[in-house]
């Protein structure tokens, strides 16, 4: 390994130490520090450190073909210490600002969706529902009127025959018990039609 490669490896590993510190703070910011033991935190920590280890090995592989030396660990510790001393406070402020910005953008998007999509659709559905109710009411009135036109002559004929009732109401029927009276009514009705034709 040449001196240039060693120097590049130390520089890159120092940067990786800074990255590792920032990643740890970001991880704890989103998931929090567990107050008591939980298996979920253990699984999350396992995935986090496996991911960081694989990423670190990939970077080391690209720099010096994956050759591990003692100074590599020293460079990592130097970068991590540098982050804790100089960059931790700045990064946490930037991270909080990024979180607030993302939340604000999310809320704005939600409000815009409600304003330009949800509310117009809701208003349109209300209009369609109102039109359907008006249409159904109009159709019912037309059907009711037609039924009334059809049934009124029948009602009139039945009333002339001795049957009394109210349309779409409480039915009242009074049928003659005597066959003679029914025949008399029918005869009167026939006579009345004859007079009307004259």
Question: How would you characterize this protein structure?
Answer:
With 198 residues, the chain is an all-alpha fold. The chain folds into two domains: 3-109, no CATH class; 162-198. 84% of the residues lie in helices and 0% in strands. The longest helix is centred in the middle third of the chain and has 92 residues, at 70-161. The protein is rod-shaped.
Secondary structure: elements and pairs:
Elements: H1 3-31, H2 39-64, H3 70-161, H4 179-197
Helix pairs in contact: 1-2, 1-3
Keywords: Membrane, Transmembrane, Transmembrane helix
Organism: Alteribacter lacisalsi
Protein name: Spore cortex biosynthesis protein YabQ
What kind of sheet is the major sheet? none
| Protein structure class | mainly alpha
Tell me how many strands there are: 0
Q: What's the helix count? A: 4
Q: What's the N-to-C terminus distance?
A: 131 Å
Q: What's the helix-strand series?
A: HHHH
Low-confidence stretches: 165-178
Shape: rod-shaped
Content of β-strand: under 5%
Alpha-carbon Rg, integer: 46 Å
